Amino acid sequence: MRKVRIGAAQGFYGDTIEPAILTAKYGDVQYLCFDCLAELTMAILAKDHAKNPSHGYTKDLTNSITCLLPFVKEKGIKLLTNAGGINPIAAKDEVMRIAKELGMDGLKIAVVTGDNVLETLPAWYEQGMDLSHADTKEPLVLEDKNWLFANAYLGVWPIVEALQEGAQIVITGRTTDPAQFLAPLIYEFGWTKDEWDKLAAGIMMGHLLECSAQSTGGNYSGDWEGIPSMESIGYPIAEVEESGEFMITKIEEAGGLVSFDTVREQLLYEIHDPSAYITPDVVVDLSEVTLTEVAPNTVRVTGIKGKPAPSTLKVVMGYEDGFLGQSLMGYSWPDAYKKAQKAQEIVMQKIEMQGNPFEKLQFDYVGYNSLHGPLATPPSEDINEIYLRIVVKAKSRPLAQAIQRYLPPLALNGPPSLAGFFTIPPRQLLGMWSTLVNRQLVEQHVQVKLEVVS
Amino acid sequence: MTIQLRTIANARCGDKGNKVNIAVFAKDAKDYDILLDQVTPERVAAHFKDLVFGEVKRYEVPTIYGLNFVLSEALDGGGSASLRVDNLGKCFASNLMRMEIRGG
Description:
The complex is a heterodimer. Chain A is of the alpha+beta class. Chain A contains 13 helices and 18 strands. The two termini of chain A are 38 Å apart. The longest helix of chain B has 10 residues, at 29-38. The chains are: A alpha+beta, B alpha+beta. At the A-B interface, helix 2, helix 9, strand 14, strand 15 and strand 16 of A face strand 2, strand 3, strand 4, strand 5 and helix 3 of B.
C-alpha cells in the first residue's frame, strides 16, 4: 500500500531547526512542512515590514533553508512553508539567493500570493461589505484606526497547484497552518475537492504536526518529567495512507514521546467546537476520533469526518493600539511581598501626583501572581523574593519608556533590600480584528508563480 | 474528599484572538464521568471570574475522554494587545487545575 511520509520542520517563528535536520537524515520523509505563523507572528512581521519594505517574512528562513537544501538535493525532500508572512515575494527571493549560492541550478521554487488584502480593504469598506467582527458582530469602522496588515487565511489548493507545477519548495504568506501538511497528500493521492473525510483527516494530520514537538512530549501536562531526552526532542512524523488514515510517530534517534496522552493533548489545541473545526478546505468533525497506540512511539488516528468547506475565508487585520512599557525590580526576604506592595503604593502615588498620563497602569508580582493572576495563592510570609512588575499602556513609545524612570529612585528612597532592575524596551501593541469575507473575492487574486534557479 | 483537578486530569490550552481554549483529559471512562459531572461550564466560569469576562462553552469528545472549554474575553484583548505577562494564555490550563472537585 502506498504511503506518504511527512515531517514537521518548525512550529513557530523562532523554533529550533535541529529536529527537522534529524528527520531529514533518518526519518525517510518525502516532505518537510513548516508552520511559521501564529496570530502574533503576523503582527511582528507587519512591524518589521513597516520599518523595511524588504522584510516581513520570518528571518529564520535563511538558516532553515540553508540547513535543509542539501537534503532537497540529495534525497528529493520537498519543503513547504508559510514563512512568507507579510512578504512572500521577499522570502522567495531570499531562498533563490541561498539556492544560487549553494549551486542548486534547476531547483524549482514556487511562491503563493494573494492573501494580503490590506490595499483592497478600503474599496470593500466603501462598497458597504459586511466586515463586522467574526466573534462580537461589532461593525467595523475602518477610518478609526491605523491598519498595519490584513490577511486572508488561504487554504490548500494554491499549494497543491505549486506542487503540480513541479515546485520543490513552496513559499506562501498567510495560508493556514495545516494546509502546508495537507497539500502533499492531495498532490500524491489525487484527492478531490469534495472528499471531505480525507481532507479532514489530512487537516488533522497537519494540525498534529504544525506545532512541532507539542505532539512528541513538548509542553505535555502529564508526566513531563518522564519525557525521554527533552534536550534532543524529536518532531512528529506522519505516515498517511490513501484512505486518509494515518499514524503519528518519530525517529528513534531523537528524544520525546508519542503516546495516546501526548497526541490527544495536541489534537484539541486551539480548537473550539470539535464537531466543527472550520478551515478553508473542509469543516472537520473530531467528535468520533480514535487514537490507538499501535507500537512504541506510534499512534494511529482514525474516525475523523469532514463536512463541506465554508463559502467564506477568515481575514485577520491588525491595527496600532499604543505602546507597552514595563520594568521589573526584586525584593528579598524578609517581608519581600510587603516591600513590593509598598513600592507599588509609592509608584502609584508619584504617578498620580504628576497627573497619570497612561491609558492603563498595572502591577504584577513575579513569583506570586504574574502568570495565574487573581487565582494565584497568596505567598507565605517567608517567601524568599518577589519581583514587582510595573506595566503601562501609553499613546507613544517615549511615554511608555518613561515608566522606567519611576523605579531607580526607590533604590535609596523606598523599602530595603531591593536588587535586580530589569528594564525592557517598549513595544508596540496591536489590536486584532477578524472578519469573514466571501472567498471568491479573495481567491480570484491568488497567484502561484514558479521560478527556476539558474 | 475534596481533591484538586490536577490529580485526575491533564490539560492543554491555546489562544485565538481574545479567546482561550482549555482541553481537559481524564485517564479513563470513570474519571471522565467525574469531569462531565463536576467540571461544568458554570463552574469553570466561576473559577475564572476575575480573569475571563465572557461566556464559557464546553464541548465533549468522549472517545479520547476529553472536554474542551472555550473562554471568551479571556486575554485582555488578545496576545498582541495584552499587558499581561501570560499574554498568550499559556498558563490557563494549569490555572484550571487548581479547581477543587469531589474525588471518586
